[in-house]
TrEMBL record:
InterPro entries: ATPase_ComGA, P-loop_NTPase, T2SS/T4SS_dom. Residues 196-210 form the Bacterial type II secretion system protein E domain. This is Late competence protein. Keywords: ATP-binding, Nucleotide-binding.
Length: 324
C-alpha cells in the first residue's frame, strides 16, 4: 500500500494537483485530481484495494482505523524533493464505505514573494497595531497571502511573529507557531492569553470561527498588536456584517480595522492562476460605519474587477460568472 500511496502522490504532484479525491461508486472507487478549478479523472481502484489503502492512509494520518461511521481528519508529512503536509479527511457514505480527500499543502513559504498585484498590501505590515481581515471561499488563497505578508515582516522588518492555527498549515523558520489542540487543553482562549505575554509584534490567527475568537482578535488588535486573520464571507461587506453578528460593536471595528479583503484565485485563458481582490481601506471602513453601513462610491467590488478582466481578454464571460 505504501508503494501505491507514493505513486498516487507523485502523479498528483507531477500534475500540480491540490487535492486527491477518492469517490466510491457501487462497483469501484474513482480517483480524481483537483487541478486548478477542475476535478480531473485519474484512474479507478477496486473496492478491496481501496479499503486496504484507506486503512494505510488513516494510520499514517493518526486516525482511528477501526472507525468507519464517523468523519475524521488528520495530517501526514510527505517528503519528496520538499516537504508536503497532507490533510487526510474521511467521510462515511450510505454505500457502506468511506470517501476520502487528500489536501496537498507544499511547504514553500520560506522566502518572501512580493508582486505588483500585492505590493501595496505589504505596506500594511509597517503598521504598529490594527486588524487586517482576509475573506473569501475555501481555496481562494487567504492563508497563502497571509503567510507571504508575515514572512515579509520577518525578513524585512525583523518583527516578532506568533501564529495560532488549527492546524498549522505552513512551517516557517523564525516564526513561533502554535497548533490548537482541544484535547490537550490548547485552545484559542488560553493561547491568546499566553502569546500576549510573549511580546509579539504581529499575531496571525488562522480563522475567526465564532464570537469568542472574534472578541480576542479585536482586543489584541486594539492593544498594540498587528493582527492578521481570515473569515468566510462572499464579499467585504459580508465579512463586516458577520463580525457584527458575532457581537463585535461598530465602534470596535471602526477603531481596529486597517483593511478588509475579499479575494479569488482566477484561472485565465492562459491557464495561469491570478489573484484578484476587492479591498476596503481604513478610510472606506470609516465611511461605512459613519454612513449607516453604506459602501463608499470609491469602492470597486469583485464584479467590477472581473468585468475589467473580461474586457481585457484575460478571462471569458463564463469564467467571470463562475466567480461572481
Amino acid at each position: 500500500m505504501k508503494l501505491l500511496f507514493n505513486n498516487l502522490l507523485n502523479k498528483a504532484l507531477e500534475n500540480n494537483a491540490t487535492d486527491i479525491h477518492f469517490i466510491p461508486t457501487e462497483e469501484s472507487i474513482l480517483i480524481k485530481f483537483r487541478i486548478q478549478d477542475t476535478l480531473t479523472p485519474f484512474e479507478t481502484l477496486q473496492r478491496h484495494t481501496y479499503s486496504k489503502l484507506l486503512t494505510y492512509m488513516k494510520y499514517q494520518a493518526g486516525l482511528d482505523v477501526s472507525k468507519h461511521n464517523s468523519a475524521q481528519s488528520g495530517r501526514y508529512i510527505f517528503k519528496l524533493k520538499q516537504i508536503y503536509f497532507l490533510r487526510i479527511s474521511t467521510l462515511p457514505l450510505s454505500l457502506g464505505i468511506e470517501s476520502c480527500v487528500i489536501r496537498i499543502i507544499p511547504q514553500y513559504f520560506q522566502t518572501r514573494k512580493v508582486t505588483n498585484n500585492t505590493k501595496d498590501l505589504f505596506k500594511l505590515m509597517h503598521k504598529k497595531q490594527g486588524l487586517i481581515l482576509f475573506s473569501g471561499p475555501t481555496g481562494s488563497g487567504k492563508s497563502t497571502l497571509m503567510y507571504q505578508m508575515v514572512i515579509y515582516a520577518k525578513e524585512c522588518l525583523d518583527l516578532n511573529i506568533i501564529t495560532v492555527e488549527d492546524p498549522v498549515e505552513q512551517l516557517v523558520s523564525g516564526i513561533t507557531q502554535v497548533t490548537i489542540n482541544e484535547k490537550a487543553g490548547i485552545t484559542y482562549a488560553n493561547s491568546f492569553k499566553a502569546i500576549l505575554r510573549c511580546d509579539p509584534d504581529i499575531i496571525l490567527i488562522g480563522e475567526i470561527r465564532d464570537a469568542v475568537i472574534a472578541k480576542y482578535v479585536v482586543q489584541a488588535s486594539l492593544s498594540g498588536h498587528l493582527v492578521l486573520t481570515t473569515i468566510h464571507a462572499n464579499n467585504c461587506k459580508g465579512a463586516l456584517l458577520r463580525l457584527i453578528e458575532m457581537g463585535v460593536t461598530n465602534q470596535e471595528l471602526n477603531q481596529s480595522l486597517l483593511s478588509v479583503l475579499n479575494q479569488r484565485l482566477i484561472t485565465t485563458y492562459q491557464k495561469d492562476r491570478k489573484l484578484i481582490y476587492e479591498q476596503l481601506t481604513r478610510k472606506q471602513i470609516n465611511y461605512f460605519f459613519e454612513n449607516n453601513l453604506m459602501m463608499p462610491e470609491s469602492f470597486h467590488n469583485l464584479s467590477y474587477k472581473l468585468n475589467q478582466m473580461t474586457k481585457e481578454g484575460i478571462i471569458c464571460e463564463e469564467t467571470m460568472d463562475k466567480y461572481l
